[in-house]
Amino acid sequence: MEFDSIMIPDHYELPVPPFPSSELVDCWTTLSYLAAKTSRVKLGSLVNPIPRWIPSQLAKVIANVDYLSGGRVIAGFGLGFHEGEFVNYSPQAKLEDAPTRLERFVEGLEIILRLWTEDKVTFRGKYYTLKDATLLPKPVQKPRPPLWSGGLGRKSLMLTARYFDGWIAHSVPPPSPHGVRSPEDYEERVKMIKEHMKRYGRDPSNFTFGYILMIGLIVKDFSKCFEVIESYRGAGCNYFIVEFTPTPPPEKYIELTKKFAAEVMPSFT
Once rounded to an integer, what is the mean pLDDT over residues 77-86? Predict the structure, then answer.
């Protein structure tokens, strides 16, 4: 059994001590490097906060990595949540309220999808404007790369069901609201997505329900992985991503990844 993908978070700062901004690599720069070092594995973001980007720029960056990798990109999108990142790294230089970020997300998503699929794009929205914008080269994957959502709220889950090909969640220690609390919490959101998908005439059997298995911070050691994986499989998860937190040095990270592949993965087919 082999790993299916390499997924990298899109964060420049995080509000937890193990992740100082100086130690967070840039998502798409790193995935571009990995595209040149690999030939089969998929390459994805977990997730790009569209409101923190200029959407047309994000569309260009992702399309370029899909082109360089021969069509192996998974594009993960979300709203963003950490104030420091938006103050220091967004065009608006502040973290706007959730309704505004949701509006920016919807406009930005439309811009990205149109730039990937149309020859010229003119767009006039509340937040963004394009005039005869052209994006070349287009993504290799047609009509577009797979889209994964990191949204958790009711409106975000509705958008997930309408536009996306997958949904990814993770657990977080309380009191943070930016994750699922339990397999039961995860299962409830899976049901909501499936119900919305049926209303949009989409088939949930072709959808990826993902979970980030955070070993160290949430799952304390390898022996606990089996129980956690089975509980989330029972809740509807069909794709697991392994993350070691707090992040060890690269050599140790590779060692732990190999250990997981040898000791945990053979139990699941």
Answer: 93
